[in-house]
Amino acid sequence: MPAKAKHRRPKQHPIARRLAFAGTGGAALALPLISTTTAGAAVTQPASVASVTTLAPAKAPAAAPAAEKAAVPLTYSVIGGDTLSKIAVQHSVNGGWQALYDANKSTIGGNPSLIQPGLKLSLGTAAKAAAARAKTISAEPAAPTYANNLDGWIRESLDVMAKHGIPGSYNGIHRNVMRESSGNPLAINNWDSNAAAGIPSKGLLQVIDPTFRAYHVPGTPMDSYDPVANITAACNYAAARYGSIDNVNGAY
Fold it and tell me: Within 13 Å and on the Cβ side, how many CA atoms surround 89?
């Protein structure tokens, strides 16, 4: 072959050009131009297009979990041997049987232990009620903690007093405690007239048992030696007799 010879592109037949175009992404537009005599030769060309089409449904299984989740029943029909606890566990009810009962109380009645076969219980509502309850609980501030010493006892007592509308201040309580018991919650007076009568004064604020019982504040132990119960009852008594523990500056 001569070194300087030029290559000439051979002319393509019009049908051949159309077939070449049919093998590209424009297959859908070119194929109608093929004559009936050459259509058989072009059958293998769209194979890649067809294979792409058959792969499209492969994404369908991804929706299955959502469909299964949506299929979870929202109601349950009670059968013999069922209990609210059993149903709550079987259906993963948030909040347990209490939430399930709260959501269906009007259906069940006043006794959660008595559920009759055939009752229709709402599971979806129970889940919502439990979620709302959990949200409410999480929004509540954490309960305060108190040191197990005079400072902590006074502060805890003041919080109890605030809930019951009993007046008094930290300084007023502390001043009287130091005078009456020097801060010893187990202090007892065995020598005065009360002791002689068999009802000695006890605890941080030296309260006799009859007075302690009469002015005991709910939410504290029924024990006159308990620091918080003793302070709170004494402050309740002082409020009734003197207006406030802050007004007490001597024996009371």
Answer: 4
